[in-house]
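look at this record:
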Amino acid sequence: MTALAPETRQGPRRSRRECRRCRKLQRQNEVLSQENRTLKARLRRLERRFEAEVRAGKRQAAPFSKGSPKRSPRKPGRRPGTEYGVAARRKIPEHVDETVEVALPRSCPDCGGSVKARGVSEQYQTDIPPVRPHVTRFRIQLGECTGCRRAVRGRHPRQTSDAVGAAGSQLGPQVVAMATHLNKGLGLSFEKCSDVFETAFGLGVSRSGLCQALDRLAAAAEPTYEALIQSLRQAPAVSPDETGWKLGGELVWLWTYATPALTVYAIQDGRGFDQAANVLGTDFGGVLIRDGWAPYRRFEEAEHQSCLAHLLRRCRRLIDDALAGAARFPHAVRRILLRGLDLRDRYLGAEITRHGLAVLTGKLEAEMDRLLQWNVQDSANARLQRHLLREQPHLFTFLHNPGVVEATNWWSEQAIRPAVVIRKVCGGNRTWNGAVTQEVLASLLATCRKQGVSPYPVLGEIYCSSQAPAIRFKGASSPPIRPP
């Protein structure tokens, strides 16, 4: 038998290797082609969304306008029957300052006939009388100590300052309290505040005068602000959040810490754990109801509740952008989170017992654990899965503490909205001194609003006090002190 040449013997082997390599390359080509088609489709969809957002940004629309108008909108006005809503009217005033008798006309305005009295009806009209600034002159007795020869002067509780001479004309506590409310609470500029005082009360006051008065009020309110921080550290649950703020044109951060009874703002130069711990303390032991920002996880002694609203919005975006089966994972996550919220509502509505809540919570956590073991291929879904694995121990804390822990961080979200509005109006602060004034006075105003306390007597008492005592609110470690 004739032996084959080496080339001939190796020829079929080399051909089989090439076939296997060719098949492998074909499979890789199919995978890459499919991935390329998916990415192109996603790119086209994102381009359309981007173009729509650009057009919407240039369109003149009313604030908070969302999408196109409804094709068949409901008729405006009150609904008939059971859909009427809450029947309400303006309350009858508790006191009457003046009574005016309105007599009948002598003849009928239509036919000229005589008029016969049938009874009396009452109407109440509440108005603001013309306001004239009230000026108080303090005659301060001066003297000296017979022992040490030091100068001694009197001080009245209604005085806001010891200044005399060129600085002897001061603004009263109610003016400063109202300026604080207008500027730090409602976002009016100092120029507009000055215009309000001039137009409504005939009180001339400069912008710089209002600014300096608010700085002095914030300095006097520092002990009260520190008392709010101490109360916050002892709260069973706190919801923090942060947003950008401008200081002299540079980016800093406005932090918000909220409970049902307290709100504390802090303007700081960073967005990390150190800044959060400056207010809460590194050993905070309550429950943090927060979003997924990583520095919050460093509060190791605290319990945590991850905001479900943020997760549900993220799932909704993934579902809207998903292709060819990629929506299955975010759909499953969304269903479990919504079932957790429904379980909370059923317990608070007394439909299930505490034991039943514990059993169903365990089943829900086990189902989430199985879901997070899925082999997720989509990159966006994989990022969500990794995030949920980190947050898994903190997803259902609100079911273990029903009625105490919220499922979302809406406390801080609502508290941060007024600050965002003020940021849009004023753009931030120019100096750190102004930032301190902003955080102190805004905290007092927000806390007064939550507790149903008028800020005017609170701020007035602080401004008139020579020793700046701490005004304690509900939720503090000691009983609240209400100003007269």
Q: What stands out?
A: The chain has 14 helices and seven strands. Residues 172-281+429-484 form one domain.
